[in-house]
């Protein structure tokens, strides 16, 4: 498990817990442990983005957006620290938005008719409905990320673009879409490369493992339990804090996404169960330290097509590490069905009884019925993601965004 000293430093990675903290503005804070000469501060990056905007303002939005994100990632101060197995980025306050999303949102308002704008304001002012565009319920296709890695996703986009060109279906909008993907994923790979070379220069106990992990993620898909955890964290921190899309589940079932890596590493004696739990403790502490007021969710369990449970040995280990850390963030969503193992239920119930958890028990049969009710197949419903505040979602095939919250009372 995580050492007391390391935990102290990770708890200060994103903000100083001794100082006043507003969880609604948690991305605007800075913590300790970042390498100062590895990048710029917020104001310097914002100044660079303003200069870049003059070059990109006439480009298609996907390309302009990708170039802004690329600039931020190129100039971020990074965190390779002796007290942590996980990397970090200093500027998390969605800086690329200042010259892209924020500006475009204002521009779009001018295109709306006066009656619609006034009606929206009336609804919000009345308290009956809160209306805004909410993209904060995103679950990536973790399966593809684990199988392909960042470089594989980039190559897949190139291949799709090539096929569309061969088929005569590649238009200007699609060209911009694919170009944006290539720019952004190339920037992520270059960031990981920069982190790798920074790690090589360090002289502390964890350095070799961190450097090897980053080298492998730079080159391809994760091949170990630790690399899979690091990929989840890197994707999360870039998507949520740089690209502005909250990652509302860690894995397509954290236990299932990680289980093959865990099982293979144990079988090959690459790690012990104690090593795996140690990595998990550092991993889970990231979200406890960030301090999202809404909590960071991940779900576990589910049902296979043959009716057997998806819970496994790692499911229990994750609960046990979480229990020992005595944290309440991330929050854990458990798919509950007749096949849910007693040891999982008993462990979760005991944690709740001792007020030592943030656990939601989700009725899987009802969720399956709900997802099939709007058109999913039974197999799709079995593999559904739970995202955000317990919403269902067909994996890699459903967009979850909202434009209004109704006050039923």
Descriptive account of the structure:
This protein is mostly helical and 409 residues long. 53% of the residues lie in helices and 9% in strands. It is built from 15 helices and nine strands. The strands form four sheets. The protein has a three-stranded parallel β-sheet. A two-stranded antiparallel ribbon has the order 1-2. A two-stranded antiparallel sheet has the order 3-9. Helix 6 packs across helix 7. The mean pLDDT is 95.
Entry summary:
This protein is mainly alpha-helical.
Question: Which labels suit this protein?
Answer:
409 residues, 3-stranded parallel sheet, two-stranded antiparallel sheet, 9 strands
Q: Using DSSP, what is the number of strands?
A: 9
Strand content: 5-15%
Silhouette: globular
Q: Which whole number gives the mean pLDDT?
A: 95
N-to-C CA distance: 46 Å
Number of helical segments with 4 or more residues: 15
Q: Describe the sheet with the most strands.
A: 3 strands, parallel
What is the N-to-C order of secondary-structure elements (H for helix, E for strand)? HHHEEHHEHHHHHHEHEHEHHEEE
**pLDDT < 50 stretches:** none
Helix content: 40-55%
Which structural class is indicated by helix and strand composition? mainly alpha
Radius of gyration: 22 Å
- In terms of quaternary structure, the protein is single chain
Strand order of the largest sheet: 4-5-6
């Amino acid at each position: 498990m995580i050492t007391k000293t390391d935990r102290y430093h990770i708890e200060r990675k994103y903000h100083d817990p001794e100082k006043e903290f507003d969880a609604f503005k948690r991305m605007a804070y800075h913590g300790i442990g970042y390498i100062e000469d590895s990048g710029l501060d917020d104001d310097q990056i914002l100044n660079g983005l303003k200069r870049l905007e003059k070059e990109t303002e006439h480009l298609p939005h996907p390309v302009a957006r990708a170039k802004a994100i690329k600039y931020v990632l190129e100039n971020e101060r990074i965190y390779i620290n002796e007290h942590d197995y996980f990397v970090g980025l200093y500027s998390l306050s969605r800086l690329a938005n200042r010259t892209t999303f924020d500006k475009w949102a204002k521009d779009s308002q001018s295109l709306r008719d006066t009656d619609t704008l006034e009606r929206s304001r009336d609804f919000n002012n009345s308290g009956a409905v809160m209306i805004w565009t909410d993209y904060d319920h995103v679950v990536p296709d973790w399966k593809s990320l684990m199988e392909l890695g960042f470089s594989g996703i980039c190559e897949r986009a190139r291949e799709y673009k090539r096929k569309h060109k061969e088929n005569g279906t590649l238009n200007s909008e699609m060209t911009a879409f694919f170009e944006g993907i290539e720019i952004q994923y190339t920037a992520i790979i270059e960031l990981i490369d920069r982190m790798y070379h920074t790690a090589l220069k360090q002289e502390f106990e964890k350095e070799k493992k961190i450097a090897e992990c980053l080298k492998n993620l730079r080159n391809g898909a994760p091949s170990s339990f630790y690399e899979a955890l690091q990929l989840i964290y890197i994707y999360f921190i870039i998507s949520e804090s740089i690209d502005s899309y909250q990652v509302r589940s860690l894995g397509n079932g954290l236990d299932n996404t990680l289980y093959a890596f865990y099982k293979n590493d144990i079988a090959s004696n690459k790690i012990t169960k104690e090593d795996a739990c140690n990595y998990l403790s550092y991993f889970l502490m990231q979200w406890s330290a960030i301090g999202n007021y809404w909590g960071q969710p991940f779900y576990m369990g589910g049902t296979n097509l043959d009716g057997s449970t998806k819970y496994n040995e790692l499911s229990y280990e994750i609960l046990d590490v979480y229990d020992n850390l005595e944290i309440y963030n991330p929050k854990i969503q458990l798919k509950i069905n007749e096949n849910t193992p007693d040891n999982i239920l008993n462990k979760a119930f005991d944690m709740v009884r001792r007020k030592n958890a943030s656990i939601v028990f989700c009725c899987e049969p009802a969720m399956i019925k709900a997802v099939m009710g709007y058109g999913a197949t039974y197999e799709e419903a079995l593999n559904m993601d739970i995202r955000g505040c317990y919403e269902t979602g067909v994996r890699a095939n459903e967009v979850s965004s909202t434009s209004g919250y109704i006050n039923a009372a």
